[in-house]
Amino acid sequence: MLPGYRFQAVVLGPDQVPPITDREEAAAHPELAALAVMMHGLRKPVVQAFVTAVSAPGTPGYAPHYYEYAYMMAASAIKRIMEEVVSETWPVYSPFAREHFGRGKAEGKAEGKAEGKAEGKAEGEADALLTILEARGIEVPQTARARITTCTDVEELKTWLKRAAVARSTDEVFD
Q: Which of 5, 107, 123, 166 is the most buried (most CB within 10 A)?
């Protein structure tokens, strides 16, 4: 306990929080609009005003966080209405949007990883080829080095790698 401190809880209910259906009013008071969604969110115009306000250009940077608070505190039925409204305006900061945005992001990451894996494999083969040529004392002119390092065909690099094991020059590697 803190000496001299007295905690007093404040309880709010639907009678103390007005339903806000005007976007400008919701934008001017996002904290009150978030409470309105929690209290009156079964009325779709309340949710529409709120979502439109917090996702509008020029809204203070902290305003979208009120969406998170309202969503976390809302009843399941209100969350469904929020998700429906959000799917119309699609702000990426909402849990609903993040789920779908995240799915697309994951698909893109998987695609990039597959492409990157092939690219990485080609780089590895090129590095191995240059290492073998160096170890064998074969001079690698700049044009040959560029041809090796820019090649993205893994099978061709493997062919060159096999030839490098017995070649006496880079010309024999490529021919």
A: 123
Q: Number of C-alpha atoms within 13 angstroms, CB side, residue 52?
A: 13
Quote the domain boundaries for residue 127.
113-174
**pTM of full prediction above 0.90:** no
Residue type, 85: V
pLDDT lower than 70: segments of the chain? 1, 58-60, 63-64, 87-118
Cβ distance 170 to 141 under 8 Å?
A: yes
Q: Which residues of 119-131 are buried (b: 16+ CB within 10 A; e: fewer)?
A: eeebeebbeebbe
Domain match, 27 and 88 both: yes
Phi, psi of 91 (to 5 degrees): -80, 130
88 and 147 within one domain:
no
